[in-house]
Design brief:
By secondary structure, this protein is mainly alpha-helical. The radius of gyration is 18 Å and the shape is elongated.
Length: 125
C-alpha cells in the first residue's frame, strides 16, 4: 500500500474531524459549514463538512447557534482539553484502570513523568 493518499482512498478515522476542529480553533468565532469548508481548503463537499460538524455536535465536541437557516459551530474545548477528555474516556472503558495507568506512566519520558508528578503534587499549572 502506498504511503501517499489518492483521491479515491478513505482518510483515516478522525482525520476530517481533527481538520475541522483545527479550523474552528483557529477561527476563534463560530463558523458555518461553508466557512469551515473555505477555511480548510480541502476538496470536501459542504454536505460532508455539515455531516462531520453534526457528529461532533452529537459527541458534545462542538456547540452550535442558529445562523440563518443553518448553524454556526464553536468547539466546546481547546485542543488540550479535548485530548484530556479523550484520554479520560478511554480510561473509563477499562475495568483494570490500575494496569492501564501503570503502563501509561511507564511509557512517559522522564520530563513528562516529572511534569505529571508536579501536577499531582500541585506544583504545576
Amino acid at each position: 500500500m502506498s504511503p501517499h493518499h489518492t483521491a479515491s482512498e478513505r482518510r483515516p478515522s478522525g482525520e476530517l474531524e481533527s481538520t475541522i476542529l483545527a479550523a474552528l480553533w483557529a477561527a476563534e468565532t463560530p463558523l458555518t459549514p461553508g466557512q469551515v469548508q473555505g477555511a480548510i481548503g480541502a476538496a470536501l463537499a459542504r454536505t460532508t463538512v455539515t455531516t462531520i460538524l453534526s457528529r461532533l455536535y452529537e459527541k458534545g465536541t462542538v456547540t452550535r447557534i442558529r445562523a440563518g437557516r443553518g448553524f454556526a459551530y464553536t468547539p466546546t474545548e481547546d485542543a488540550p482539553g479535548l485530548t484530556a477528555r479523550r484520554m479520560h474516556s478511554e480510561l473509563q472503558k477499562e475495568e483494570d484502570r490500575s494496569t492501564v495507568l501503570a503502563r501509561f506512566v511507564s511509557q512517559l519520558t522522564d520530563e513528562d513523568e516529572q511534569l505529571l508528578r508536579d501536577l499531582l503534587d500541585g506544583e504545576a499549572r
